[in-house]
Design goal:
4-stranded antiparallel β-sheet; ATP hydrolysis activity; single chain; 28% strand; ATP-binding; binds adenosine-5'-triphosphate; Rossmann fold; 6-stranded mixed β-sheet; 8 helices; ABC_Transporter_VariousFunc; 220 residues; globular; transport; ABC_transporter-like_ATP-bd; alpha/beta
């Protein structure tokens, strides 16, 4: 079992405080859901954990190793950003080789989710197909901790359900931290839920709390 420990994260943009004293801990076999209104700082938090953005304060540990740079995170943390990140003209089979080790590549090549566009290049895919490909490449990467920023965005319901099942299956050996505005899908698969609100990360017990903290409308 491995553990990702995230502590004391503080981040401001100019005078705007985005994150204050953020703590979370994720073990393999756990799925953590992070909810929050638009602009609450979810992507900022993911980028700091992944190492592409620096907080004013931060302490991030993988087991006993303090993660100080991108090199420390290799094969430990993978990150699906909110925006498209793949080169557009590389064959998808080649991308799978680049993102996955041999074992994971073989498994992904067998997945029925990838079959419809296996011989394509990303520039020939629809927006949703491109998102499926990106989500799969990150989930099947070697890393033990997977950060997914809006993995369900633009995916049709049946595909969302299949991706949720895949995340649950993969969580037997990986830890996931997921954020998405399709909150019910996040609630369905998460062991723990947090709400990022007013720059603090609050553990959430149930829907009532999500209403009380003004994330959900009262009539849900
Ligand atoms: N590079 C930047 N410079 C200045 N402000 C920024 C920068 N990046 C993000 N912000 C601001 O920080 C806040 C948090 O942004 P972030 O993208 O983390 O929110 P989010 O919770 O992921 O939002 P959404 O759900 O809408 O994607 C927003 O107010 C945004 O405008």
């Amino acid at each position: 079992m491995s553990k990702l420990h995230v502590d004391s994260i503080t981040k401001s943009f100019g005078k705007q405080k985005i994150l204050q004293d953020i703590f979370l801990s994720c073990e393999t076999r756990e799925i953590l859901g992070i909810l929050g209104r638009n602009g609450s700082g979810k992507s900022t938090l993911f980028q700091i954990i992944f190492g592409t953005l620096k907080g004013e304060n931060q302490f991030i540990k993988f087991n006993e190793v303090i993660l100080k740079n991108q090199f420390n995170r290799k094969n430990r943390i993978s990150y699906l950003p909110q925006n498209s990140f793949l080169p557009k003209n590389i064959k998808i089979k080649k991308l799978i080789e680049l993102f996955c080790d041999d074992e994971n590549a073989a498994e992904l090549l067998n997945s029925k989710l990838i079959q419809p566009f296996i011989n394509e290049i990303p520039s020939n895919l629809s927006g949703g197909e491109l998102r499926i490909l990106e989500v799969l490449l990150i989930i099947y990467s070697k890393a033990e901790f997977i950060l997914l920023d809006e993995p369900f965005h633009s995916l049709s319901p049946k595909i969302v359900s299949e991706i949720k099942n895949l995340i649950k299956e993969k969580s037997k050996s990986k830890g996931f931290i997921i954020s998405d505005h399709q909150f019910q899908d996040v609630l369905d698969i998460s062991n723990k839920i947090y709400l990022l609100s007013n720059s603090y990360l609050k553990p959430i017990k149930d829907l009532t709390e999500l209403k009380r903290f003004n994330y959900l409308p009262k009539n849900i």
